[in-house]
Amino acid sequence: MKTTVALVHESDPRVRVQRVINLLGGMARYVSPGQTVLIKPNLVYPDPPPRTTDPDIIAALVEMSIAVGAKRVLVGESPSSAEKKSKGLTSRDVFEATGVFEKVSKVDGEIVFLDEDEELEVDIPEAKIYKKAIVNKKFIEADVLISVPVLKTHFLTDVTLGIKNLYGFVSQEHRKLYHRDDLSQKLDDLLKIRKPNLTVIDAGLAMEGLGPKVGSTVPLDITIAGGDVVACDAVGASLMTYDPMYIDHIRMAWFDGLGEARLENINIIGDKLEKLRREFQKPDLRTTAIYSGVTVIEGGVCRECRARTRWALDELYNKALLSKLVPLIVIVGVKPYIPDTIFPSNLIILGDCALDYFYKNSLNIPTDAFYGPGCPPDSTPRMVSKWAWEVVSK
Ligand code: SF4
Fold this sequence. Notes:
Blueprint: E1 3-9, H1 13-23, E2 36-41, H2 55-67, E3 72-77, H3 81-87, H4 91-97, H5 100-106, E4 110-113, E5 119-123, E6 132-136, H6 137-141, E7 144-148, E8 150-154, E9 158-160, H7 162-165, H8 172-175, H9 183-191, E10 198-208, E11 216-226, H10 229-239, H11 248-255, E12 266-270, H12 273-276, E13 294-298, H13 303-318, H14 322-325, E14 328-332, E15 346-350, H15 352-360, E16 370-372, H16 380-393
Helix pairs in contact: 1-2, 9-11, 13-16
Bound molecules: iron/sulfur cluster.
Iron/sulfur cluster is lined by residues 180, 301-302, 304-305, 333-334, 351-353, 375-376.
């Protein structure tokens, strides 16, 4: 039997989410009286949609769950680990700033600050790389899990939808682990712990380009929902004109039998996907031959480091600092070629791989060079522009 995904195009977010759940047979198909429901929106930044899930969608799902007899409805999320580390951002800050705290409290939902909540170590025997996970305890124990992501492109995983949204349950301590090209495999492994009972993709305002934070807003007025998170993600990816099989974590999840990703095997009900599909601008990770006077030397480089290089250069350009720094050399990745001419230039070294190469080969690092530590490097645009201000103010 084909798995079913519902898709609704409607301008009012509350009407839209009610219609999409009705198409699936109503919330009672997913929530039984007396159960505890955990809703996981995408609330990693203290910013409005599309960086975060629409508060009205979250509140409507809380109300629908209570209406069918849920004993408790929890709404839990933790903040971006990069922003927590660099700016001290907490989930309390995000719930307040986005207005979700107020809207959910008004309809008798309970907020859970996942960065303060209890965690568990979990063995994942079928995992390929993420064998021992540290995740939020409620992620394991809630009777019903509802994933409510925003539809966005993502610089590292191409798209961020229902599967990627579960990453918020991973402990802050483990977030950076495998946050490289192997993140997709980690997401697939994480899904082996638990799949959401219901996924509701918020595409009221979506994001294209260099998501999930600095892309451009795309108003779509669409919600996609279903019980199979892989199928929901496949439909979401297709809406953005991606072939779902092109997206590593969607294909891996299908390959491992965690859900259906082949559109021909998905019964899409409601409004017509073909009529609503829109070409999304894909994340642009090109770094070389983009800005004059800038030479980017990549060794074997992960997408994560490449994206951070592009972010840093765009940031310097947008702040009118780049032209004052040229000639500029950026060195990134494993075993990069190091030219003899780096010293007359300003120099940026990004990531632990590139720095290790300098150390292992006893190469001198100029004292005024910028080094972005970490694998992947932390908060790169902010730190690079701080360094750039110091260089140009000399
Ligand atoms: S530091 Fe090296 S391994 Fe880590 S993300 Fe960058 S290129 Fe990849």
